[in-house]
Amino acid sequence: MTRPRAKIHRMARILQLVAAAVVAAALAACGSADAPEPGATRAASQSPETISKAEFAARVDAACRTAQERWSDPRAVERELPPSVIQTSARGDALRLAKELRGYRALLQDVLVQLKRKPRPPGADGGVLEQYEIALSHAVTDLEGDEMVIRQQWNRVLHAQQIRKLLRRGRRLAARYGFEDCARLKTPL
User: Fold this and answer.
1) Residue 120: what are its φ and ψ, rounded to 5°?
2) Helix, strand or coil for residue 162?
3) CA distance to 10, 30, 31, 67, 118, per residue, from 19 (Å)
4) Cβ 52 vs Cβ 121: under 8 Å
5) pTM for the whole thing?
């Protein structure tokens, strides 16, 4: 009885070795699709996941120009944005300011969409791009809060000073990164 058991054990061991060899061969055959073939040199062109800093700056600057033109007219804000879900009892100047803040918020959101859109340049900017995104995101949030305060006529302090500070920081960071048009954005505050 020991012979059949030993034979089964040897067969199982051989099957394990064959399975291990198949797995090793499969792993060896797997390679990166981006890896150049042996002896080939990689072309100087960049991969589709990255672009140059100049191309990226031109794309974001174009978004700043377009958004500035698109959202600077209060009638365009009313025409193109859906009605505000915030019920309002504000009248006159307060309502105009709320609409202006809403338009400027839409402008900043358009720029943020382009900032986050891929492809993006390699991250050798010392975090300037991320800081710029953060400043704009905080400004968008504060603008939305101020619009709500104005529309609801709440007796609360507006974040205008904080928003101005964030936007000044954003303009400085935009200039540092090379976004010339974004560095010159006009603010409603």
Assistant:
1) -125, 155
2) helix
3) 14, 17, 20, 60, 42
4) yes
5) 0.65
